[in-house]
Each structure stands twice: as structure tokens, then as C-alpha cells.
Amino acid sequence: MPATAKALATTDDLRPTEDELMNADGRRVSEAEYWAYYYEFPDVHYEWNNGRLEEKPVSDNLTYWIYNWLRALLDEFLKWHPIAKCTALEHGFRLALSDRVVIRKPDLAVVRNDNPVPLGDLDRSYRGVFDLCIEALSDSNRAARERDEVEKRRDYAQAGVREYYIVHHNPERLTFLSRGSDGGFESILGADGIVRSRTLPGFQFHSRDMLGRTPLEALRHDPLYQAFVYPQWQQEEQARLQEEQARQQAEAERDATRIAAITKLHALGLDPMQIAEALDLDRALVAAILDAC
Hints:
Layout: H1 3-9, H2 18-22, H3 31-38, E1 46-49, E2 52-55, H4 61-80, E3 84-87, E4 93-96, E5 101-104, E6 108-112, E7 132-136, H5 142-159, E8 163-167, E9 175-179, E10 185-187, E11 194-196, E12 204-206, H6 207-212, H7 231-267, H8 272-279, H9 283-292
Parallel strand pairs: 7-8
Antiparallel strand pairs: 1-2, 1-5, 3-6, 4-5, 6-7, 8-9, 9-10, 11-12
Helix pairs in contact: 1-3, 7-8, 8-9
């Protein structure tokens, strides 16, 4: 948070009233006032667009659940491929654009380990540019939709965000964008329905699984997810399979050795009783083996 905001925050006579804080959407305030009074206000989440406050709209439950599925998948990926860190909790970042300054609060953001500005453990905002921003779209009104689908898309592209995802329960409103060679955003949602991240190499998912919120444990054998969805389960299952195969192989070798010994002794003229006593086997088993031979 800028030092000017901290200084301003100590001036109590400038602090807005609770009612003013609760109903500030569209109000014009300075950037210092935003950081001091509105940025961390817990009851209403505001972004700042070139001098004007914008209240963050609320998504419907189904969109939230779909967003939460994607977040869980991303957490699982980063657990096994720790190439980046996530942040949420209304952490904002400042975008100094060519024509204005905005402060945005993505629903979820990712910072790669090679980003020149690392996430600080005790920071309450991010001083760099996020590598990936994810928004759970609110379609409560046209202005809310356009903020995510048009304005933030433009702002994030201009600021240098590498990828931008818009999540919604309607498949037609899903958007998965990555920076192209010309610096602008282009879709990374393939014709096969699979999203393959360029910013997080190896992170991929099928939009069908996201919309259906397929349980992650049900995906662990899918080749699309095997590299990062519960790989420890796969390793344990593979170890159990190898143990079972080894046990079956040992039993087969034991049976082959037993049969060879029984047939050899029988060829030497021993009867089943004598063979059973010689090999410490059950007489019925010896007789069954000889009958099968």
C-alpha cells in the first residue's frame, strides 16, 4: 500500500462515515483516499477506476462453485508443480495504463516464481503485475458483465497480464485468454474443449469437467490430469499393482516347481501317497495334479 495512503489514514476527520463507505459505488475519490479508506473496507469490495469507485458485483452460487472447482484444481497443480503462488482475499494491484490508472481486485490471481515482483508474505496488495487473473463473472446487470468481459480484458492486456480467465456457469460466457505474439489476448480454449495454460506449462483441464465439477479423485486416471491430480494415489496404486503381480508370479513359479517335482517322482514309480509324503503335500492335491497331467 502506498505510503501516502498510510499517512492519510491517520487523519480521522477525513474518514468517511459508515454509510458513506457502504454506499460509495460511483463516487469520485483520490487514489490516496481509496487506499486509506475503501481498499480494505470489509463489508463492500471496491475497485478504483481512474478516480471513481466501482463496487465488485456478486456472482451466483453455481458460478462460485465452478470457480471453486477451478481453484482446487489449480491448488493441486501448484502443490506438485510449485512454479507459482496464488493469492485471493481481495488483493488488488495497480495498473498504470497509458491513459489512466486503475486498481483491480481479481477473484484469484497467480504470480509465477520468475515474476520480477514476488508475492510478499505480509503484503496486503500486490506491487507488480499478476501473471494470471481469474474472475467469477457476475451477470446481474450489463454493466457488471462488461466490466469483466470488456474493461478488465482491455486493462489486463494493456498492463501485461499474461493470462485472463472468466468463469461462469454458462458455457457461452467462459473465456480463457493468453497473450499472443502481438501482445494482445487470444483464446486458449481448444476446439476439443481443453484449456492448456501457456503461463503455467502443464496446467490443463477440460471445460466439461469444470462445468460439471467432476470430483478430482475421479480424474486421477485421466491422462489429461495424471501429472498433477493426486499423483501420490497413482503411485500407491501402481505399487500395489506391482506387488500383486509379483505375488502372482511367485505363486505361478511355485506351482510350476511343484508340478515338475510331482511328475518326476511319479515317473520314477512313486504312487501319490509316497509323493505326498516326500514333498510334504496333501495327497488329494498330488492326485489332482497327476490327473491333470
